[in-house]
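Morning!

This is the sequence you dropped in the shared folder:
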Amino acid sequence: MNVNPARPMLPALTSLRFFAALHVLLFHMYAMQIMTGSGFYRSFASVGYVGVSFFFVLSGFILVYTYAGRETTPVKFWQARFARIYPAYLFSLVVTFPFFLFICIQLKNMDIPMFAFQQAHMFQAMGLVLGLLQSWIPLAALSWNAPAWSLSVEAFFYVLFPFLLAPMLAQKNRRLALILIGGWVVSCAICIGYVVVKPDGLASVSDATLGAKWLNVVKFFPLVRLPEFLMGMALGVIFLREPIARKRGTALILAGVLALVVVIALSPRIPYPVLHDGLLAPAYAAVIYGAALNPAWLRVLESKFFILLGESSYSFYLLHSFLVSVYFMPMGKLRPTGIIGTAIGFLLPIVVSILVFKFIETPARRWLKPKKKVEATPMVTAVA
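The structure's back. Tokens below.
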């Protein structure tokens, strides 16, 4: 992970991005009934959408780590972010465009809640997606390339970041801790409020509930997801100001992973909206902080192999759902593949994402970035 030259690199965090994206892939394979499994795996895969929260927290942390104390302008920052995210984003839209047209035209008379908005407002959906605005119209969030909704949320974070950094750096540690706690409380309160009030009039909801207006607001609306990003920013400032001893990194990582395991084990009893958003943000914050401390045993993630997977995880995230669908469900129905076929389908998005990173993302970023190198940190994104 390339960061501010004045600060050490954090390669372990780059590698962890791949595992968060992999969790999202397992969720989609579970939802498509490709790899359902049983026991803890079933519970783990069925909540893979929580990986998005990891990306939002990590995004705030990494941007602070990169830009704190560094001279730049909002325009240069936005140009650098555009160069980082839009080429691969646009490529994913080009690749998925035929499927988008098929849904809007050939399946228009079918009642499919997930595609309702784009079928009724095809050109509006196209404009929103191209402008990274789809999450501002929650019913349109999953239009065209569904996982790209989180990029719309990230774009909002990027617009705000240059104006949030200085005030965040000016906060005392006590207030930063309050931002961390408060961000989590606000995020959970919004979701609990939905469960209690039931604004959509539904007795219960799950990941299979699509087209519910207020549920989509809770899941996709940028302002609702902002607390997770602010938590990441506060965590980044605390890390830069008072990094603790490296040996404590292991304890933080284990605590975060333990919290994740407990929540996954209890997930059938946790209301879906609460689980979907920021419930696990503190656990992710602990893992991110602990990994940033770079405990010795975590150096396995600093290998070129894992770093490459982490660097290509952005394209992996954008393309995996489409590639898995095309491979396993070419005619809309799940086809038998066997162990070898399933392995090929599992590896396909990984291989394609590496190629996209090498031959599209990297060259485009070099061409589009500001003449004066501002940054080259990987994008942190995500789904559901």
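Headline: The chain has one domain: 11-368.

More detail when I'm at my desk.
O.
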